[in-house]
């Protein structure tokens, strides 16, 4: 009943219009979230919300010196060999370092109360909170039916993000490969790059792709400015994975979650959200409406990955092992820098992001890093155990390793590939290196540039 609340108030009071009630509620959500965030921000470091330096600045940035009593490296390379972090020595490693530093700025740009407040004006908060409430009650009931002391699969805030994800993919953001011709609505063909116009540049687009209408008599040109500013994306509401991940991650932050922006060296970006309920980072891909499906890219899309690096306002982490469970099968060779250098770069970015945090806060985050490292190491161990368990006595006698038997987890990831998302992946041209990836290398270069 729409005006259930209104009738409860008694006959003497005027009837309250249900639309008005809904908008009041939404306004209250906004205020609560906004105040909560302000409180967090003021207790946070000044560093993490101060204007981020331009990417170029990092070339000359001195790495923070390692404290004498630095703890042993809290995580190791994919091969689980303990390594001592080492400063980059060669030009290639320095380039990788500068690039990672520059990428690490993305989540800092969301630590802006004005932007986050504006974002909350766009999100249908009441709908999202209602859906989250309903789902978390169902999950709670399911857990209770399994017996006392059983924990719900996901907590309330996880359900908020899940609802946000559904709304974002289904009703808010649009995928655009080639923009259609605005004169005759026909498909267009990529013809290269154009210099940004002043108004495009003012709105943060440094790259503009140019497309030509495929109809001979028309020949119109379409511009596709690649906006990198989450505020602008709230209005344009379209793009490829870069725009999707940028805007969606910012919205997760706006509704009060801790968020990470994950950069992948094979041209993809996505989100991770911290689940307080599960005490771990959860993979979220807005383009795919994927929640906690980290094996999607490898076993699902058949894509090999080299680096997946997660950046947040208070840290950086090489999370490749979460996405590449079986490095011998799905890992690409990591050639951008020696592993000890990658460790060093992560330490450096973390130290920079945390430099103004309190001792307790730093300690808490270090504990979290160590927990996550154990989690990531566990993935590799179970993958190896799984491989070993598939070897049969015949394999040993014949001297061949098992390859034919299916991995049950891989099977699960494959299911998500065949559940109707194939069309979507093909339409996006994101389906890994296999037959579904029809994009030419120039187009891929655009995307690669864009994710930066
Ligand atoms: Zn046309």
Describe this structure in words.
Helices cover 47% and strands 12% of the residues. The N terminus and C terminus are likely disordered. The site of zinc ion has 8 residues, from loops.
Can I get a quick summary?
The protein is α+β, with helices and mostly antiparallel strands. Helix content is 47%, strand content 12%. It contains 18 helices and eleven strands.
Descriptors:
disordered N terminus; 6-stranded antiparallel β-sheet; 452 residues; alpha+beta; binds zinc ion; 12% strand; 3-stranded antiparallel β-sheet; N-terminal domain of TfIIb; C8orf32 fold
Q: What layout of secondary structure does this protein have?
A:
Blueprint (H helix, E strand, L loop, with lengths): L3 H5 L9 H26 L47 H13 L9 H10 L2 H21 L10 H17 L1 E2 L12 E7 L3 H5 L5 E6 L7 E5 L4 H7 L1 E2 L1 H14 L4 E6 L3 E8 L4 E6 L4 E2 L4 H5 L7 E5 L2 E4 L1 H4 L3 H4 L8 H16 L4 H31 L3 H6 L9 H11 L3 H7 L12 H11 L1
Helix pairs in contact: 2-4, 3-13, 4-9, 5-6, 8-9
The structure holds zinc ion.
The site of zinc ion has 8 residues, from loops.
GO cellular component, one term: cytosol
GO biological process, one term: glycoprotein catabolic process
Protein name: Protein PNG1
């Amino acid at each position: 009943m729409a005006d259930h609340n209104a009738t409860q108030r008694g006959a003497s009071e005027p009837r309250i219009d249900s639309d008005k009630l809904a908008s009041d509620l939404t306004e209250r959500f906004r205020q609560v979230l906004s105040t909560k965030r302000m409180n967090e921000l003021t207790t946070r470091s000044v560093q993490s919300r101060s204007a981020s330096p331009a990417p170029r600045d990092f070339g000359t940035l001195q790495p923070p010196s390692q404290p004498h009593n630095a703890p042993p490296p809290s995580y190791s390379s994919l091969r689980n060999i303990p390594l001592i972090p080492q400063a980059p020595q060669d030009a290639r490693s320095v380039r990788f370092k500068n690039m990672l530093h520059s990428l690490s700025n993305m989540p800092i740009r969301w630590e802006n109360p004005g932007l986050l407040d504006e974002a909350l004006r766009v999100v249908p908060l009441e709908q999202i909170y209602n859906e989250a409430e309903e789902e978390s009650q169902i999950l709670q009931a399911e857990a209770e039916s399994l017996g006392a002391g059983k924990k719900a699969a996901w907590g309330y805030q996880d359900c908020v993000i899940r609802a946000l994800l559904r709304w974002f993919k289904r009703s808010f953001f649009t995928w655009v490969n080639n923009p259609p011709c605005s004169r005759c609505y026909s498909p267009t063909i990529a013809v290269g790059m154009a210099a940004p116009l002043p108004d495009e540049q003012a709105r943060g687009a440094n790259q503009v792709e140019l497309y030509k209408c495929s109809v001979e008599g028309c020949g119109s040109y379409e511009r596709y400015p690649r906006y990198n500013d989450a505020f602008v994306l709230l209005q344009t509401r379209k793009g490829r994975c870069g725009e999707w991940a940028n805007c969606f991650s910012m919205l997760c932050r706006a509704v009060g979650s801790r968020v990470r922006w994950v950069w992948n060296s094979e041209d993809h970006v996505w989100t991770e959200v911290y689940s307080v309920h599960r005490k771990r980072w959860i993979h979220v891909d807005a383009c795919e409406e994927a929640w906690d499906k980290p094996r999607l890219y490898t076993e699902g899309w058949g894509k090999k990955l080299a680096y997946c690096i997660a950046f947040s306002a208070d840290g950086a982490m090489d999370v490749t092992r979460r996405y590449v469970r079986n490095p011998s099968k799905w890992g690409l060779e990591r050639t951008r820098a020696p592993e000890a250098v990658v460790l060093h770069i992560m330490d450096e970015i973390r130290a920079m992001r945390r430099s103004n945090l309190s001792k307790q806060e730093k300690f808490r985050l270090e504990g979290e890093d160590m927990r996550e490292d154990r989690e990531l190491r566990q993935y590799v161990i179970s993958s190896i155990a799984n491989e070993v368990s598939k070897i049969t006595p015949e394999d040993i006698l014949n001297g061949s390793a098992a390859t034919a038997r299916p991995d049950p987890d891989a099977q699960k990831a494959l299911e998500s590939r065949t559940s109707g998302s194939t069309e979507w992946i093909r339409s996006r041209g994101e389906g890994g290196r296999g037959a579904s990836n029809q994009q030419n290398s120039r187009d891929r270069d655009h995307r690669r540039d864009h994710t930066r």
